[in-house]
Structure formats: C-alpha cells, structure tokens
Design a protein that fits this description.
The complex is a heterodimer. Chain A is an all-beta fold. Chain A has no helices and 11 strands. Chain B is mainly beta. Classes of the chains: A mainly beta, B mainly beta.
Chain lengths: 115, 113
C-alpha cells in the first residue's frame, strides 16, 4: 500500500539545526512537499522539490532528496521557538495513468524547540 | 490572491444530530477541492475530493457526504453524527493544473458528545 513514513517526535534546542526525515513510497512521484501545522491551525505549504532535483534551499530551509533510497529530509537552520509545530511531508500520488489529483501525507513529525 | 475559508471554526454537536460544514475559495476558478479529517493521532485522512461542480469522489465509506453546489463551494454533511466523527476537519484546494500542491483552510474543530 501507499505509506509515507516519518518519525513522530524531534526535540532540539533553540539555535541548533533540525533535520526532519521522511521516506516515501512511489519512485515515480514528480513533486514532494513539506507542510507545517501550528496548533489548532491548517497546514501551511513550506516548500516543494521536483523529483529531478537533489537539493533545494529557501532561506533557513534546505530540502534534500535521495531518489534511490526514496528519502526526503527538511533541515531548518537556526531553529527558533516559533518553528515548534508538526511537519508533514507529502508526495503526489501516482497511478498507471500518471499523476492523480491526490497527495499522500506522512504521519507528521512534532518538532519541539527548547529555549 | 487566493483565500480559503471554513466555518464554523468550532462546533459541539450531540450524537445523532445533523452536520453541515462549509468551505469556500476566493480568487480562483475551477479548483480541485478536498475534505480531510485529522484525528487526535495526527494523521490526515482524505474523505472526499471534487474536480468540478457536482463531481464528488469518496475515499472512505462512512456516514458523511459531500456536495459541491457551486464552483468554489464545498460542503461536508452528515444526517446523524457519531461519536467517532469528532475531529479536526480541513478543507483544501489546488489549481486544476500545476504542480499539485494543496492549500489548506483554517479547519473546523468538531466535538460530538
């Protein structure tokens, strides 16, 4: 079946780097995404990466993609208390006809930033 | 720019009562629309999606239904709520064409007592 896996919890100290990991299932996925969810709020799209890229950097965020191992990571530099949230990775669901209208979400990683 | 609205923000309903949650999108035409439920365990469960007016795809059989009476309006309904319907309901949209990322509304917290 389709399963996108993430570790449940990560705790870091303010100012350190955070690395959130994700393994996805479908090597034919064209786009992969990272979302952030603050308590009681909807999901906010943070960034995305196209499958022909290995890395994408956007200010404090760095996305690394290893297609061979189907592994995606999100690195947050200089982590702040405002970064405390749940982070979801997602892949574009594919079928034999190509891309579908759906995303497959991971289980989410709760990032706790200690002052 | 596009915005997505959901209401109500919170709702407390007795078991067996009806439900109607509304989602509207502004600033775009012919979006794909989605309803998700997020239980306390955190994962997102896709309930319904729609690629156009009157076109609804159901992902999980249950006592919920969805309707899309207008291009930018998506409604989630139930005739009789169950305790297990409690959760955080999220509406999302995406452009009909593009990379595929979805944009989420603020959510509705439903508690069934």
């Amino acid at each position: 079946g389709e399963d996108v896996e993430q570790s449940l919890f990560l705790s870091v100290r303010e100012g350190d780097s955070s690395v959130i990991n994700c393994t996805y299932t479908d090597s034919s996925s064209t786009y992969l995404y990272w979302y952030k969810q603050e308590p009681g709020a909807g999901l906010q799209l943070l960034t995305y990466i196209f499958s022909n890229m290995d890395m994408k950097q956007d200010q404090r965020l760095t996305v690394l993609l290893n297609k061979k191992d189907k592994h995606l990571s999100l690195r947050i530099a200089d982590t702040q208390t405002g970064d405390s949230a749940i982070y979801f990775c997602a892949e574009k669901a594919m079928n034999y006809g190509g891309a579908t209208n759906k995303l497959i979400f991971g289980t989410g990683t709760l990032l706790a930033v200690q002052p | 720019s596009q915005t997505i609205h959901q209401w109500p923000a919170t709702l407390v309903q007795p078991v067996g009562s009806p439900l109607s949650l509304e989602c509207t999108v502004e600033g775009t035409s012919n979006p794909n629309l989605y309803w998700y439920r997020q239980a306390a365990g955190r994962g997102l469960q896709l309930l319904f999606y729609s690629v156009g007016i009157g076109q609804i795809s159901s992902e999980v059989p249950q006592n919920l239904s969805a309707s899309r009476p207008q291009d930018r309006q998506f409604i989630l309904s139930s005739k009789k709520l169950l305790l297990s319907d409690s959760g955080f309901y999220l509406c999302a949209w995406r452009p009909g064409l593009g990379r595929g990322e979805q944009f989420f509304g603020p959510g509705t917290r439903l508690t069934v007592l």
